[in-house]
TrEMBL record:
Membrane listed as a keyword: yes
Domain Connexin cysteine-rich intervals: 140-207
Organism taxonomic ancestry: Eukaryota, Metazoa, Chordata, Craniata, Vertebrata
Identification of the protein by name: Connexin 35.4
SMART domains recorded: CNX, Connexin_CCC
Subcellular location per the Swiss-Prot or TrEMBL entry: Cell junction, Gap junction; Cell membrane
Topological relation to the membrane, as annotated: Multi-pass membrane protein
Keyword field: Cell junction, Cell membrane, Gap junction, Membrane, Transmembrane, Transmembrane helix
Region of interest (Disordered), ranges: 259-289
Annotated ranges, domain Connexin N-terminal: 42-75
Species, as recorded: Champsocephalus esox
Gene Ontology annotations for the cellular component aspect, listed alphabetically: connexin complex
Assembly, per entry: A connexon is composed of a hexamer of connexins.
Amino acid sequence: MDWKTFQALLSGVNKYSTAFGRVWLSVVFVFRVMVYVVAAERVWGDEQKDFDCNTKQPGCANVCYDHFFPISHIRLWALQLIFISCPSFMVVMHVAYRDDRERKFKIKNPDSVKLYANTGKKHGGLWWTYLVSLFAKTGIEVAFLYILHHIYDSFYLPRLVKCSGAPCPNLVDCYIGHPTEKKVFTYFMVGASGLCIVLNICEIIYLISKRVARIGNKFKRRHRSTAVRQEDYTSKDYTSKDYTSKDYTSKDYTSKDYTSKEPFNNGHLAVPSRDRKDRPPSFKSAFKSSHGISSLIMEQKIRASAPNLSSS
């Protein structure tokens, strides 16, 4: 495997990562890839050749080796490094998609503003892609640790294993080559994997808390601007004497000039006696006055025609 190409690919993720992401990348290269390339491959080497059994039965050693080592540590770690790097490539591809979209938009609209202020900034869909990649890396790390623990019984490598499967004639003792050295490297790689899991969890918490804080600050700014608007509406300019003074509650707005001209709105108001003289008589008052005058004239005529009746 060409680890230089692998390193070049992952280095592109470094400029889009947070501080925790950069530390994770350093741990992967220094404590995992470098240890894997420099030391681990040489320690394991040809494992089956160093696996010795106290029998000459053909095929017995191969069967026992396959039973105790269904997959080699070194190949399992190579798969683990490849799989945990794939989610990081999702971020690189998403940024490449943004760059291509920005380039096409600029060709079609050369005078308009950019679609993205910074294509590598973790906002919108890129933030979700980055968060999903962290969850994926954490899940892959945990899955490979579980596989290693399940296959090799708590990451422990004994010096002696006993095998009784066919074609072995009886219970056979088999010896593992370099058991202590392999145990040390196994614990080291498991510890580095656990450290990467912790860094991924810290980065997830950091991203989510930062997003929550940004939303909280946005809500506070919106609430503060709303409060400022309310203060503007209820400030001195709107509640001062100029708006609640005598000009709006004085006699000019409640006098007869405003109440007498609205007969349908001020019918319940009492009209002063001094104002009645200025008004024309209504139909009822005119009827009463004319009826009183006619009855008085009639009574005078009767008295003039019959003076005796008036005297009696």
